[in-house]
Design brief:
The chain is 45% helix and 21% strand. It has 173 residues and is an alpha+beta fold. It has one domain (24-169): Glutaredoxin. The protein has a 6-stranded mixed beta sheet with strand order 1-2-4-3-5-6. The longest helix is centred in the first third of the chain and has 22 residues, at 2-23.
Length: 173
């Protein structure tokens, strides 16, 4: 009896782990462009080690954040939760996502407080959680404070990400 319970428990864990891993960092063929794209929830590991790692790692490594600006908003940033929505096929996303994560790293932000979603060419991704974000453009960096959205940075910046973050974080106590 104990062996059956143990076997069932182990099998269930493996099943759920496999099902979850298939959903995270999923890469599919995009019929619009006939290229591979990332879709749905993902994480930094998927960005750093997938077929998209070249552009992510390059921007992350080479970007030099404006340290004075980061120093100014570091404590406020730590009080927020962040959702990142990007397209692995999108030039603006390929430029901005690695840079954004470099800024978060420089600020000492706890990366586990971020959610990341990859979208297709129609700015869609599976899941109810994603549908509630109301995405209009990408990349989209959404900041939440006490569970409420306080601002977002959408697309290419006219100035720089640090300045946009500083402006949004003025709403944080």
């Amino acid at each position: 009896m104990k062996k059956k319970i143990l076997f069932t428990a182990i099998f269930s864990l493996l099943f759920f782990a496999t099902a979850f891993s298939q959903q995270m960092n999923r890469i599919v063929n995009d019929p619009k462009t006939n290229t591979q794209v990332m879709i749905g929830p993902c994480n930094l590991y998927g960005l750093k080690h997938s077929i998209f790692a070249t552009w992510f790692n390059s921007q992350y490594k080479n970007y030099v954040p404006k340290r004075e600006a980061v120093k100014e908003f570091r404590k406020k940033l730590d009080k927020t939760q962040i959702t990142v929505v990007f397209g692995s096929w999108c030039a603006d996303s390929r430029k901005q996502v690695g840079r954004f994560y470099k800024i978060l790293h420089e600020a000492g932000y706890k990366m586990k407080k971020t959610r990341i979603f990859a979208v297709n060419h129609y700015h869609k991704a599976p899941g109810k959680e994603f549908a509630e974000l109301h995405i209009k453009g990408i990349p989209d960096f959404i900041l939440f404070y006490h569970g409420k959205e306080i601002g977002r940075i959408v697309g290419s910046q006219k100035t720089n990400i640090e300045k946009d973050l500083k402006n949004i974080l003025q709403k944080v106590d």
